[in-house]
């Protein structure tokens, strides 16, 4: 089976812009979670989607949003980018109680 | 917010030595997992231990869990240079009726050949 695929791998944006990141989970996995990783804060949980419904959300401002499509692919959107949004954004998929399977992330740099 | 705190934050050992990393958490859990991350890449699952288990082995890995102390440890025996990576503990527990996985702060391990 193909692993979790995240696109793009790298992204450079300017403050105030918005960005959309994409995640294709492992085939058959209905749960997709997003994490933000920064050197200072470690891995912070953003949200989890299951069968197109958000079922968990972390403590992030409303500028961070996501969605999941019927084929389980997920996107996350960050509007009005701030310098502090620079991070590695990781997507992980799972099915049932299995461990998380991570993609290699999207490295977002906000200038 | 972080559920788990790991120590040490960084660890440097010689090849062949054992490496021990500790994780402490705050709330009740269903299971605890350990992941590995090579620089700039995604995390890879290593081992899962359920809340009713005390010890688990997988190859050169040994994980212990003490739910009364809310702590876990990961032991890597006979380390290799290829073990150089960051290691994270993650706790899974109930949140809003669903299971949520929350990560610790990680331990950066360097194995010197």
* Overall mean pLDDT of chain B: 93
Rounded average pLDDT of chain A:
95
Shape of chain B: globular
Describe the main β-sheet of chain B briefly.
Answer: 6 strands, mixed
Give the ordered list of helices and strands of chain A: EEEEEEEEEEE
Give the largest interface pair and sizes: A-B, 24 and 24 residues
Radius of gyration of chain A: 13 Å
**Low-pLDDT windows of residues of chain A:** none
| Fraction of residues in β-strands of chain A | over 45%
Q: Assign the structural class of chain A, choosing from mainly alpha, mainly beta, alpha/beta, alpha+beta, or little secondary structure.
A: mainly beta
Low-confidence stretches of chain B: none
Total number of β-strand segments of chain A? 11
Count of DSSP H/I helices of chain B: 0
Count of helical stretches of chain A: 0
Distance between the termini of chain A: 37 Å
Radius of gyration of chain B: 14 Å
Measure the end-to-end span of chain B.
Answer: 36 Å
Structure description:
The complex is a heterodimer of chains A (111) and B (113). Chain A is an all-beta fold and 111 residues long. In chain A, the strands form two sheets. In chain A, strands 2, 4, 5, 6, 9, 10 and 11 form a seven-stranded mixed β-sheet that branches. A four-stranded antiparallel β-sheet of chain A has the order 1-3-8-7, with no helix packed on it. Chain A has no helices and eleven strands. In chain A, 0% of the residues lie in helices and 54% in strands. The model of chain A has no long low-confidence stretch (mean pLDDT 95). Chain A is globular and about 40 Å long. Chain B is mostly beta strands. In chain B, 0% of the residues lie in helices and 62% in strands. Chain B has no helices and eleven strands. Chain B has strands at 4-7, 10-14, 19-25, 31-37, 43-50, 55-58, 61-66, 71-76, 85-95, 98-103, 107-112. In chain B, the strands form two sheets. In chain B, strands 2, 4, 5, 9, 10 and 11 form a six-stranded mixed β-sheet that branches. In chain B, strands 1-3-8-7-6 form a five-stranded antiparallel β-sheet, with no helix packed on it. The radius of gyration of chain B is 14 Å and the shape is globular. The model of chain B has no long low-confidence stretch (mean pLDDT 93). Chain A binds chain B through residues 4, 33, 35, 42-45, 48, 50, 55-56, 59, 88, 90, 92, 97, 99-105, 107, and chain B through 1-2, 33, 35, 40-45, 48, 88, 90, 95-96, 98-106.
